[in-house]
Specification:
The complex is a heterotrimer of chains A (300), B (265) and C (421). With 300 residues, chain A is an all-alpha fold. Chain A is built from 11 helices and 2 strands, in the order H-H-H-H-E-H-H-H-H-E-H-H-H. Chain A has a single domain, classed as ABC transporter involved in vitamin B12 uptake, BtuC, CATH 1.10.3470. Chain A has a two-stranded antiparallel ribbon with strand order 1-2. In chain A, helix 1 packs across helix 9 (226-241), helix 3 (65-91) crosses helix 8 (193-219) and helix 6 packs across helix 8 (193-219). With 265 residues, chain B is an alpha/beta fold. Chain B has 2 domains: 1-88 and 179-265, P-loop containing nucleotide triphosphate hydrolases (Rossmann fold, 3-Layer(aba) Sandwich); 99-178, no CATH class. Chain B is globular. The chains are: A mainly alpha (300), B alpha/beta (265), C mainly alpha (421). Chains in contact: A-C, B-C. At the A-C interface, helix 2, helix 3, helix 4, strand 1 and helix 9 of A face helix 1, strand 1, helix 2, helix 8 and helix 14 of C.
Chain lengths: 300, 265, 421
């Protein structure tokens, strides 16, 4: 029973991170129908930036929760900036182009960013400090659930709630929903589509950065390649839940997290990634609209 | 003269999209040698009707049956679009859907696909049979292009053609599939009066010389009245009138549909 | 516009324009200095977790982005003004027509090329020949993927899977049954084709981007299975001691094997060019292009899209299978690490760079992308960086690639038509 609980909470943790990254995919796809292949790299850059910031700040004497928060904020700022810049360079010029062009551009950007970090930093795994503090009250159950897992789950829940409120009640949130439904109409009604798209990228990147900082703290190491795998898995989560749907991204993330956790816990840990890819292939073939999504049809 | 058996018969066609009934119980018949027009205000369901007949949509209810000369009747419901074309129905599209990056000739050549056979082996080894088939395809296509007046632009890219020429190319391309029934979706859209008159002549020639029957959707009333043997009028997915051009022109329901309730004929 | 500040200058004076352009570039430069500061300037040393400060990088970023900003804006303006780059394509078509109508030039060129190609391995070192063999392998891979992506318009990101099938088929058959290269070659190709059909079947209904991701998923699944199913594929340690291609049982030295393989590759590449070219200018090639251009219209013109897509997949896969066998024979050792997504991405970028659908373009693309990094050894670290950047730049500025597809030209003298293509 304890093992089950441990796997359950582990899956919840993983799923939360997948959800945070998946939100970025789903929002961008909802707005401009593009799979932002480079989104995983934004997550990776968030983690690296946090590590760099934390290293510098700890030299200046900072520690504890303030170190986590400050490093996290810096990571979020930088990831958002990268997301904003990538959109302007690789995607905005291709808004009118044929369907495949932005995807190929995204793949190119993904490769570019991976190698950028690789060359500028290192190909080795870098150890990431445990920035999330250990809570005293978690002591008794620490064999089932760790403090960092609690922080991750709570933070994700908070972010999701904030995002939902933002989309629902703010002006820009409404503009985002309008643009996602009908870009031309929104433009004709005076919505600044460019600004909406930029905002979408910024928010998505920020969430991915939060995920990057938290999970890196939890796992303890990062590497320039983590964006690729996390990106594919998060994309799986987004599609699973229904691409374009925010609750779908969260749902998909959790389902994927639990699937991986239980599969590796009870079946085999070698094929961990195969489960995720298998799920991805399965969903795209049999139900591409996902759980909460609706199928769209082309007008002939 | 009309044959007893219509070459295309649509019975009780209904098409729903979720909760929306786009087409509500429509009956249409086309007899051999006829030019039949389908008219109605925008959004009446005319292109949806075409899509149901040609296999792009699957009808919710009803039957689409073809009975070309010397062949047993075939029910088209649920057949894929390429199978429908193989059976002998060809169509053009409301928004021109040419293969833009291919040449004029290649666009028509592609449409010969379903009437030819050579496969990978033939393509790679270019045996005599394949070479002959290829030559025949090119000749056939060229002659079709001559018929629509595009033989001078054979090597131009489709996207380089002026609008009216593109529409004629679409017609030639459809004809390359050797249909017994040609379905034209707004062939005169965007044409000036001179081009429309030429189109009138072209469509009539296709019927007279090639023996192909025509079903067309059109908004240009002058063309419709001049060329059609019979007209069906659709509004909000329903058939509101049907008959010869004279019958339809004076029909109160038709006038109401186009011009609204307040107009008094 | 940067941060809501309108940088467009309203004044038309030359000085005013220069100032505003410089101001824009300055803003861009500052932005990139900010953006790249943590990653470029601050380096965490992996071993001792100390920090290295590289202020010179900041300087390079500042200067580099300042000047690139001008170039970027200039190219963007050109792209906007140009609309369709028809005059560009026209010069290629004119060269093509000229070559055909002046056979003497064409034939002389071909003869010179033929001599150069034949003498190559004897004039250059074994190492250089190995590089050329590698480049030729990528030419074949590019031409194979060109069928799927360039002609049929199906974005296959898992092409490396078929490459792996070919390689492992030969490796395993050779390891367990001692099958020779020549016998394994057709088997590897056939197996890859089979995989192409099997993998292609479920993805047929999918739209462009989803198709891409599913194929990527398939590619990764195959690699992961190869890595973990130790009993079958010997896992991460791979298979070693694979036989080289035999020449009637004659004993060859290492150098001679290299030369032999080079000639085999030349023959295979020529065969590939011939077959792909014939496929493209045939009934099925036209069906592929129609499928790529407009799937709905294509179906309405009587083309069975399922069959057409599967044929493209299977034929594309066949080529990857062939090259896979050659790869196994060349390196005599394979392991799953050679078959990552990055390989698929490289092959894709060859097709994209060369010009989707264009055979000559793909050949040039492969030679450029593979040979250039080898000869610019000093910059070889930056190879993948340049790949990535070039994919983005090509999509933005020249999506049709170096050489856009030459038009198929037909001549009509009176009645019958003759194909000059």
């Amino acid at each position: 029973m304890e093992y089950f609980l441990e796997l359950f909470l582990g899956g919840l943790t993983r799923g939360s991170i997948y959800a945070l990254i998946a939100l970025g995919y789903t929002m961008v796809y909802g707005i401009i129908e593009l799979i932002n292949f480079a989104h995983g790299e934004i997550y990776m850059i968030g983690a690296f930036t946090a590590l760099i910031a934390a290293s510098v700040l700890s030299l200046l004497g900072l520690s504890g929760p303030s170190l986590l928060i400050l490093a996290g904020v810096i990571a979020v700022i930088y990831s958002s900036a990268y997301g904003y810049t990538i959109e302007k360079i690789a995607y905005k010029p291709l808004r009118q182009a044929q369907r495949l062009s932005p995807l190929i551009s995204a793949i190119g950007m993904s490769i570019f960013l991976q190698n950028y970090v690789l060359l500028a930093q290192t190909s080795d795994f870098l150890s990431f400090p445990a920035l999330i503090p250990e809570f005293g009250f978690m002591e008794p159950i620490s064999h089932i659930m760790q403090s960092s897992e609690l922080v991750i789950i709570v933070t994700t829940a908070l972010c999701t709630i904030l995002l939902t409120l933002f989309i629902k009640f703010t002006r820009i949130g409404k503009a985002m929903r309008a643009t996602a439904q009908d870009k031309t109409m929104a433009m004709l009604l005076g919505v600044n589509v460019n600004r909406v798209v930029s905002m979408t990228f910024i928010i998505g990147s920020a969430l991915a950065a939060v995920g990057g900082v938290l999970i890196s703290s939890h796992i303890g190491q990062i590497n320039f390649y983590i964006g690729f795998i996390a990106g594919i898995k998060a994309f799986t989560a987004a599609v699973l839940g229904g691409i374009g749907s925010i609750p779908g991204a969260v749902l998909g993330g959790l389902i994927l997290g639990w699937t991986e956790s239980f599969a590796t816990g009870y079946v085999s840990s070698d094929y961990e990634d195969v489960f995720a890819f298998g799920l991805l292939v399965f969903i795209l073939i049999f139900r591409p609209s996902g759980i909460l999504g609706k199928a769209s049809s082309e007008k002939v | 003269m009309k044959n007893a058996q219509p070459i295309l018969e649509v019975r009780g066609l209904i098409k729903d999209f979720g909760g929306l009934r786009a087409i509500d119980t429509i009956d249409v018949q086309v007899h051999s040698g006829e030019i039949v027009a389908l008219i109605g205000p925008n959004g009446a369901g005319k292109t949806t009707f075409f899509n149901c007949v040609t296999g792009i949509y699957v009808p919710t209810h009803g039957d689409v049956i073809i009975s070309p000369k010397q062949r047993a009747p075939v029910r088209l419901n649920g057949l894929k679009p390429n199978k429908v074309t193989e059976q002998g129905l060809a169509r053009t599209f409301q928004n021109i859907r040419l293969f833009q990056k291919m040449t004029v000739l290649e666009n028509v050549l592609v449409a010969r696909h379903c009437r030819t056979k050579s496969g990978i082996f033939g393509a790679v080894f270019r045996d005599k049979k394949t070479r002959n088939e290829e030559r025949e395809m090119v000749d056939f296509s060229y002659r079709l292009l001559e018929k629509v007046g595009l033989s001078g632009q054979v090597n131009d890219l489709a996207k380089e053609l002026p609008y009216g020429a593109q529409r004629r190319l679409e017609i030639a391309r459809a004809m390359a599939t050797e249909p017994f029934l040609l379905m034209l979706d707004e062939p005169a859209a965007g044409m000036n009066p001179k081009e429309t008159r030429e189109l009138d002549g072209l469509i009539t020639r296709i019927r007279d010389e090639e023996g192909i029957s025509i079903l067309l959707i059109e908004h240009d009333m002058k063309l419709v009245m001049s060329i059609s043997d019979r007209i069906y009028v659709l509004d909000y997915g329903e058939m509101i009138a049907h008959g010869t051009p004279k019958d339809v022109a004076g029909n109160k329901n038709v006038i109401k549909a186009y011009l609204g309730e307040t107009f008094d004929a | 516009m940067i941060f809501g500040v309108n940088m467009q200058s309203k004044s038309t004076s030359v000085a005013g324009r220069i100032v505003s352009e410089c101001a824009q570039s300055l803003m861009v430069s500052l932005w990139f200095m900010f953006l790249t500061f943590p990653i470029m300037v601050i380096r965490i040393k992996p071993l001792d977790r100390t920090i290295e400060w590289r202020w010179d990088n900041l300087f390079y970023i500042a200067i580099g982005s300042f000047f690139l900003s001008f170039i970027w804006r200039y190219l963007m303006k050109k792209k906007r003004d140009q609309g369709s780059s028809e005059d560009k394509e026209d010069w290629q078509n004119r060269i093509g027509l000229k070559m055909r109508s002046e056979p003497k030039v064409y034939i002389t060129g071909m003869i010179v090329l033929g001599i150069a190609v034949t003498l190559f391995p004897h004039l250059f070192s074994s190492y250089q020949t190995q590089i050329m063999i590698s480049a030729l392998m990528y030419v074949m891979l590019g031409l194979g993927l060109n069928i799927v992506v360039g002609l049929a318009g199906l974005l296959d990101l898992g092409y490396v899977a078929f490459y792996a099938v070919g390689a492992y088929s030969y490796a395993l058959l050779n390891h367990h049954f001692g099958l020779s290269f020549w016998m394994a070659l057709p088997l590897g190709a056939a197996l890859a084709a089979l995989f192409g059909i099997v993998l292609g079947f479920p993805v047929l209904r999918l739209r462009g981007d989803y198709l891409a991701i599913v194929t990527l998923g398939f590619g990764e699944i195959i690699r992961l299975v190869l890595e973990n199913w130790n009993k079958f594929s010997f896992g991460p340690s791979g298979i070693a001691g694979i036989s080289r291609p035999s020449l009637f049982g004659i004993e060859l030295t290492l150098n001679q094997h290299t030369i032999y393989l080079y000639y085999i590759m030349i023959c295979l590449v020529l065969l590939t060019i011939l077959v792909v070219s014939r496929l493209r200018h045939s009934r099925i090639g036209r069906a592929w292009i129609a499928l790529r251009e407009d799937e709905v219209a294509c179906q309405s013109m009587g083309i069975d899209k399922t069959r057409t897509k599967l044929t493209a997949f299977a034929l594309g896969a066949t080529w990857a299978g062939l090259v896979g066998c050659i790869f196994a024979a060349k390196t005599t050792f394979i392991n799953p690490a050679s078959f990552t997504f990055m390989e698929s991405a490289i092959i894709l970028s060859i097709v994209v760079l060369g010009g989707m659908g264009s055979i000559i373009g793909v050949i040039i693309g492969a030679l450029v992308l593979i040979l250039l990094p080898e000869y610019l050894r000093a910059f070889s670290e930056y190879r993948m960086l340049v790949f990535g950047a070039s994919m983005v730049l090509i999509m933005v500025f020249r999506p049709q690639g170096i050489i856009s597809s030459l038009k198929q030209h037909y001549e009509f003298h009176g009645q019958s038509g003759e194909d000059l293509g």
